[in-house]
C-alpha cells in the first residue's frame, strides 16, 4: 500500500516539484546556524548594499546593515516552525471536536457546531490580530492565535467524515460486540478519515505561514525573532530605494506556500486515486 501511494504521488509532477522546494527550504532552515552562526540581527556592513555588490553578501544588506541572506536563512526556520506547530495545535482542537460531533450527533453535534460557527463568523485575520495584541506579540501567542482561527474547518471536515463512516458495517459490528465508543472513534473510524485530514493539514501549514507573515508585517511578530514577514514589514518604507529587501523574502514566502499547495494536491491525488484529476 505504501509503495502504491508513493507511486501515485510521484506521478504528480507538480507535487514532486513542491516536495523538492520544501526540501530545499527545510535544508536552508536546518543549516542556517552553520551557514550564519552569528545573530541575523547583527549589523555587518553599511546599509542598502545591493545583492552581489560586496563579496560575502550575496543578497545585500537591509536598512540597518544586517545581512539579508542570514535573515532569510534564520527566518525559514521560524516560518516553518510556526506553520507546523500552529497546524498541529489546530488539529488537536478540531479533530476531537469534529469526531465527537459527527459520532454522537444530536445535542452534542448542535452545541459543538454552534461553537464552530461562532468562530467562523469572525474574520480569521481580524481575530488573529486581536488575540496577538491582547496576549502581546511573541512566537507562542502567534501560534495560539493561528491555531484558534484555523481549527473550525478541521472540525467541520472531521464531522462530515464521521457522519458518513459511522454508518459503515464495521462500525455497527464493533457496537454489537460491545466496543467502547472511545475505541470505535479512535481505532475504527478515525484511521479511515485520515486521508482528507492529511491533505487539509498540508494546506493549513501554508495558510499559517501567510498569517504569520501578515502579522509580522503589521508589527505584531515576535520582536526577538527574525522572520520573513518581519523582513518585508521592515522594508516597506524603502521599496523604491531598495526593492530587493521586500522582494527576496516575498519570493521565499511565495515559493514555500506554492510548494505546500502542490504537495497538498499530490497527497489528495495519491490518497484518493478514484477522485484524481486526469493529467495532461
From TrEMBL:
Subcellular location: Cell membrane
GO cellular component terms, A-Z: plasma membrane
GO BP: any one term: transmembrane transport
Pfam families the record matches: BPD_transp_1 (PF00528), OppC_N (PF12911)
UniProt keyword annotation of Transmembrane helix present: yes
Domain spans labelled ABC transmembrane type-1: 76-264
Coiled-coil boundaries: none
Membrane disposition: Multi-pass membrane protein
PROSITE patterns linked: ABC_TM1
Transmembrane segments: 76-104, 125-151, 197-221, 242-263
Protein name stated in the entry: ABC transporter permease
Amino acid at each position: 500500500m505504501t509503495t502504491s501511494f508513493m507511486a501515485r504521488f510521484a506521478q504528480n509532477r507538480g507535487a514532486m516539484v513542491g516536495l523538492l522546494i520544501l526540501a530545499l527550504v527545510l535544508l536552508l532552515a536546518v543549516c542556517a546556524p552553520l551557514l550564519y552562526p552569528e545573530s541575523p540581527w547583527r549589523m555587518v556592513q553599511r546599509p542598502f548594499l545591493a545583492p552581489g555588490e560586496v563579496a560575502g553578501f550575496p543578497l545585500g544588506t537591509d536598512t540597518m546593515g544586517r545581512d539579508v541572506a542570514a535573515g532569510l536563512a534564520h527566518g525559514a526556520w521560524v516560518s516553518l516552525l510556526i506553520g507546523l506547530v500552529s497546524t498541529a495545535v489546530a488539529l488537536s482542537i478540531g479533530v476531537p471536536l469534529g469526531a465527537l460531533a459527527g459520532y454522537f450527533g444530536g445535542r452534542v453535534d448542535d452545541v459543538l457546531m454552534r461553537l464552530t460557527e461562532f468562530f467562523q463568523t469572525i474574520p480569521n485575520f481580524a481575530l488573529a490580530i486581536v488575540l496577538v495584541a491582547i496576549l502581546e506579540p511573541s512566537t507562542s501567542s502567534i501560534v495560539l492565535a493561528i491555531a484558534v482561527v484555523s481549527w473550525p474547518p478541521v472540525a467541520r471536515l472531521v464531522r462530515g467524515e464521521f457522519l458518513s463512516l459511522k454508518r459503515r458495517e464495521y462500525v455497527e459490528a464493533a457496537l454489537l460486540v460491545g466496543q467502547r465508543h472511545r475505541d470505535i472513534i479512535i481505532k475504527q473510524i478515525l484511521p479511515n478519515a485520515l486521508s482528507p485530514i492529511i491533505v487539509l493539514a498540508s494546506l493549513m501549514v501554508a495558510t499559517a505561514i501567510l498569517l504569520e507573515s501578515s502579522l509580522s508585517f503589521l508589527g505584531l511578530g515576535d520582536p526577538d525573532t527574525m522572520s520573513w514577514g518581519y523582513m518585508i514589514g521592515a522594508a516597506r518604507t524603502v521599496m523604491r530605494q531598495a526593492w530587493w529587501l521586500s522582494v527576496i523574502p516575498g519570493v521565499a514566502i511565495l515559493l514555500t506556500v506554492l510548494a505546500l499547495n502542490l504537495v497538498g494536491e499530490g497527497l489528495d491525488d495519491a490518497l484518493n486515486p478514484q477522485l484524481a484529476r486526469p493529467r495532461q
